[in-house]
């Protein structure tokens, strides 16, 4: 895992969006936690659940309810690996086998800057549709 983190860190060149500071670090702290740091000192910690439900991928086991993108049951999802994508982002591979989301560095900044509101809205949406963050019970 550390080798992947070092490889990603070496390939970081910054972002094309002037408003987003240059990325200075990306670390998978555990399968459940990612840290992203920018040159201006801003540091964001993300849970794997948060990143999974805010995946920029169009698919990803999404339930569409009334036009809303709703992903439920991902409280305990973990990150299996991170694969650098050019100089602009990373593909996260989750243990629920979701692997199509490419997270640009500026998207991490956007997520981090709005993290609490996004999580609050996610929980409200789940409640609205009588869904849960907990995974469904396993069938026997």
From TrEMBL:
Signal peptide feature range: none
MF terms per GO, please? Answer: metal ion binding
Instruction: Answer yes or no on keyword Secreted.
Output: no
Name the UniProt record assigns to this protein: Gamma-butyrobetaine hydroxylase-like N-terminal domain-containing protein
Q: Where is the Gamma-butyrobetaine hydroxylase-like N-terminal domain?
A: 32-109
Keyword Cell wall biogenesis/degradation among UniProt keywords: no
Keywords recorded for this protein, A-Z: Iron, Metal-binding
